[in-house]
Structure formats: C-alpha cells, structure tokens
Amino acid sequence: MHTPDGPRFLASPREGLPPLADSPSAVSEAADALASGTGPVAVDTERASGFRFDDRAWLVQLRRTGAGTHLVDPAAVPDTDRLLAPVMNSTPWVLHAAHTDLPALTSLGWHAPELHDTQIAGRLLGYGQIGLAGMLEELLGVTVAKDKGREDWSRRPLTDDLLTYAALDVELLTELLDTAVAQLRRRSIEEGTDRILWYRQECEHVRTEWSHPVTVPDWTRLRGIGAVRDPRGRELARRLTEIRNRIARDLDTPPEKVLASSLIVELARSPQDAEDVLLSRGTGGGRVRPPRSARGGHGRRPPRPMPRMSPDLRSMLLHGVRDALSADPGELPPRPEQVRGVPDHRTWSRDHPVAARLLSGFRDAVDTLSGHLDLDPSELLVSRSVRSLAWKVSASLSPGPAGPQDDPVGWAEELVGGLLVGEDARPWQIDLLVPVFVPVVDTVMVDTETAGD
C-alpha cells in the first residue's frame, strides 16, 4: 500500500502533542475523555527494564476515536490504576505485540475484556514477526521514527521528543487494525479459509497467557541451567539468584547488573569451586578460574573475566554458596521441567530412529503446509513443540503401537490431537495439523510393525 512517491513520514501526532498526564486531576480528565470515545482503545507502554529492576510501565499511551491521545505517567500518579480502571476494564484494547505490554498493564490492575493485536494480524497475513513501523509502512503507507525504544523511560522530565515518539505508537493503531482485518477477511474469501477465526483464537491465547503481573525470572530460567546436573549446583544457582534479585529490587536496578546470570551458571557447574573462586578473586578485576577438574590439559577455554563486586555482595554470595553446600540433600531442587524428559534431538538418528523419522516427517509437513498458507512455519507449531510431539508419539509406537489395530487412523488422530492440545496448540492449528501429521504417523507405524515382524 505504498504511495507512488513512497511512504509518508509522520513526524508528530495529527492533533498535536498532548500534555503529559502526571497529576491525579489530569489522569481523571484523561479517563473521562476516553470513556466518552467510541470503539476500542489503542494502548502502548514504555518500560525501562534495562535501567530498572523489572519491566513495569513508566508511561502509558492511550488513544480512542473521539477522545484523542493521552500520555499517562503512572509513576507520578499512584492512583492511575484506580482512575483509569473503569474504562480500561470495560473497553476492548488494540496493541501491537501485546505480549510485551500485557504484564505491565496487568500490574496496573487492568484487564482487557477483549484483545486485538496488530502484530498477530500481520503474522497471519504472512509478514512474520513484523514491527509496528514495518506494518504501518506496508499497510498504510506511513513511516514513523522507531529509534527511542531503548531510552531510559524512568528518567524525568520526559522530553518532547520522547513524548512525541510515544504518542505516535498509538496514533494509527486503530486504522492499522481495520486495514489488517479487512485483508484477513479478503484472504479468507479467496482461499476458503477462516483467518479471522485464526486471528481471534491467537488474540485470545495471548490475552489469557500474558495477562499476569510483571515478574522477574527465577533461577530455573537462567540460560544454560539445564547443563547443571549436580543438584548441589542447582541449589547454589537458586540461592545466588535469590540474593542478586533481592539486592536488585532494593536498588531498583536490573538483576544482571548486580550479578550476571552467566556467572551464576558458571559457578553452579562446579559448586565445590565456587567459594574458592569468590575468595581468591577478592573485589574484582581478576578472572574466574575453571573448576579443578578442568585445570591443566590443553585446549580449554581461557577463564572469563571476573566482574567487580562490593565486599558486602561478595560476603552475601559466600554465605549463599556455603548454605547451598550444606543444604539437606532431600531439599535440593530437581532439574527444571523444561529440560527434562526429551533428549537432544541431534542424537535421535543414532539413538532413537523412530523419533527421528517422525521429527523429519512432521517438519516436512509443517513446512509444506505453511508454504501453502503463506505463513511462517512457527505460526503453525514452534520447533520445540514439533520435537516434543515427535518424541511423545514415538513413545506410543515403541516397541509397537498401543492403539486399537482395527482403527489405526482414528487412534493416530486422537493421539496427535491430544498431544497438540498438550503443546498449547490452538484449535485452528490442530484442525490444520492433524490431517498432515496422521499420514506421517501411519507410515512410521507400518514401518515399525514391519521391522518388528
């Protein structure tokens, strides 16, 4: 939808830059104006997780037809949640990439009765994980600046440049939604599909799954924690993560700036060396020594730089290490659930050939179907779930199919459909995937029976 002269650059809100609502009376006026508008309310937030402890909202942008745009400062007005709740909890929302904003909005006590997500609409039109600027250019022929998303939005005062940037995030959301939905309807008619149904189910899934308050990930979400097999190391990771998060919360600073997750995992991989490392390196500038078992030898990676830390932090970490090493064995944590049960798929061709064949067949089926529908394969089923499905189906086929032999196709349909529900697939995805997955299962099942004979 580009114009002949290329996309038009929108430098400022069409109605001018609205003032920042940073007092109770200003927020009340915004609430009254929004309540008098019509249609859904366009919503966006600006957060400062790279500068503050968590991902809470430091600015909320709201726009509704007939009500204009309103920029609300929830940090300056503690009653923002209560003042805007009547309109926010009774009016449909329009966001772009809603999953990034919903926790911050939920933390304000607001819950969308109905959600529209223009990024979801774009994905179902074949644009992939498209940003707001990209969709505005593709569908409306308009571009906006997107160069201030990583600013420190917790700093005050906010400049006019920042407020303008924020206001433009909601300026055209409603128009963008209308255009995208119209295209989804057009595609549905042309193809004989129901992309509007797909869109509604995806929006409801995001609304349900992401409408939770802002949280800070615990130790089970540390990158690389799955490689820590020693329960004592996992206990160490748990305690060090709790210590760094507690300090970060008190300082209102990102946990990574207190203690890097990579360092926690490194110490957890060799818990018996952790105290030695912390003691020998003092208050900074040194390097993390490799575990004793890895010292010497050739080809090992050089030790990683040890970050500076205050004596108080080092003392707390040492207490955490000692507590972890002396903890009751019966209280040590198990491996995080997400890394248990399914072996590395790269070994399947050698160690689990049935699972490997299913995985290959499922991948091919997803790729073929997604190409036919002009969708990214992940829109039908993410890679992790494809692997999980292949592994679980293989368990049902080994040493032989456990289902009724008089109706193997019906058994496979029920098996695959049930497992897809367990993988959090939506009904529209299940309806499309079961017919293309069942032939794969049937082929592998026949080959397994033949090999058994």
UniProtKB/TrEMBL annotation:
Region (Disordered): 1-39, 278-312, 326-347
CDD domains, per database record: RNaseD_exo
Pfam families: DNA_pol_A_exo1, DNA_pol_A_exoN, HRDC
Primary enzyme class: hydrolase
SMART domains from the UniProt entry: 35EXOc
Assigned keywords, A-Z: Hydrolase
Entry EC no(s): 3.1.13.5
GO biological process: nucleobase-containing compound metabolic process
Keyword field contains Hydrolase: yes
Domain called 3'-5' exonuclease: residue spans: 18-185
Molecular function in Gene Ontology: 3'-5' exonuclease activity; nucleic acid binding; nucleotide binding; ribonuclease D activity
Compositionally biased residues, Basic residues: 289-303
Annotated Gene3D superfamilies: HRDC domain, Ribonuclease H-like superfamily/Ribonuclease H
Name of protein: Ribonuclease D
Native organism taxonomy: Bacteria, Bacillati, Actinomycetota, Actinomycetes, Mycobacteriales
